[in-house]
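## retry 2 of 3
previous attempt timed out at serialization; input unchanged, resubmitting
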Amino acid sequence: MPSSTPGGTSDRPAVRPSDRPTSLLLSPPGEMLSAMLRRSSPQLPVFIVLVVAVFASCERRGGCTGANCGVLIDAAVAEPGTLLPPSSEDIVATDIDEQLFLKLADVGMSQNTLGDEDFQPLLAQKWEWDGPLTLVFHLDPRARWHDGQPVTAADVEFTFNAYTDSLVASPYRPKLRRIASVTQRDSLTTVFRFRERYPEMFYDAVYHMRILPAHLLRPVPRDQWRTAPFGRQPVGDGPYRFVRWQAAQSIELVADSTFFLGRPGIRRLIWRFTPNLQVAVQQVIADQADVREQLVTPDNVKRAREAQQLAIYTYRGTVYTFLSFNQRSPGDSTKPHPIFADREVRRALAMAVDRASLLKSALGDLAKVPPGPISELLWIWDPEIRQLPYDTAQAGRILNARGWRDHDGDGVRDKDGQPLAFHVLVPTSSVLRRQYARLLQEQYRAIGVHVEVDELEPTVVNQRVGTGKYDTAILSRSNDPSPSSGIAQSWTRAGFGGSNFGRYYNPEFERLVDRAVTATTRDRARPLWRAAMETLNADAPGVFLYALDNVAAIHKRVDNVQIRPGGGVAPAAPRRVCRDHLRRCHVRLYPDSSRAGKAVRAHRRRRVRRPDPVRPTHHAIRAR
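## retry succeeded, writing output
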């Protein structure tokens, strides 16, 4: 692995965007906690996700030359804390990890998470079911860690144990709760055993974990993973190798020429850190970076459209943003919050917010008001889901009935000498969330509620929200391809100590979620999810503010941009597509439906189903 120093300097020349076209696969963003700008997935919130890459190209002679040939620069907002996947809590880290670490398989272009028919093999060459609760994976023997060691079943077993260890405190832990164990049958065969049978067993087995090198991480104490040196100098098994991390400046990866699925053609990927969105947007406009995955505001979109070197791409988002109410006392989860533990007060505060006018003022046509904790890309999105109405008169009556009145005439409601006042946390890196905080402050003032806006560094916001030391916070969260994992992680008891920061709990909501998760078809699950969302909305654990449509600005030198639905992308077996008029040949490393990983029986070989090839999914895709 190339040497690097986390805070070190480099004697290499300053990197500029590449002069030559490259290929790009763009995935919808996944926001994590605060400043985090996936998924989703995962994931605490952050801002968006572009997963670069993973194409290989073979240029003809006389093509690109020079030190910066094949360099792609992403103008990233904020710097990640670590690149160790179980502990990665922001979108920039998630994007980078996708290029460093592989999953066993990934969701296909159809985004179907039921069964295993549409999944694409990555580390796993094939798999079969050994009974209703046992899933067996056979690893690709060609897979290697970047230090040359083979990827084995011991790594898979180690990874599962790490992700589910309470000392690691991974935000993905609740999503793996239905898997009882992962063991190794031999060096290339790993066995998953489930606690129960349900339609998304395969999805849970492969989607939430990036396989880790046991030989390098086993000696690291689990309670020290978030600060382990490995997270600053990772060794992966993906299409790109880690090169260097220059603190407060950038992270650089280089294409792995020995990658078993084919070398990517984008030779170097660089994430250049910026303090906030406006600086990131200015970098792509000034031709100092190639990509900004999310422009967010109408003004930024207008400025980017006026930059002649940029192409603009719009696509549905995976992220929703909300005002989180902490129902427990800040810093002491054993005690109720003096304001937000009261369901009726939460309902009144939700009804006092004119979400439609806020959205129109801040975002125009670039977002929608979400009907719950879901993004528009999620298949359960339904504008007919019942929500609390905007009704300041009713909100005032509720607050009066709960004893919150302006007894002293100072314009702020109070009860037993305590003013109806609270703080809202927002990260300094998010211009939009800071704007929303001020707009909320004005709307709450109109009904006698005093709001203090605390604009803090992203890491501070993350720490305070993660430890429950807050009243309210404007958070962004990315939906997974399936509602079953993300919603359970963030809004049920399974997320206590994880991503359910506000400690929301309603047994009826959890009963409906459990029924929806075990439904065998989407048609059966849909009414259950709708009932669950309406139950949650009635409890007002937060105010669901906006679900962004994504608008990306990408330099026109970047060739063959494709939009993939759902979460991030990881390379799968390459498929060679040559077009004479392009004067080059691309090896596409994004999941290819012609390699769909249909389960096969262990005792005999069976031909894998060959669906039609993947076709472009965006009207703006074109060869340059």
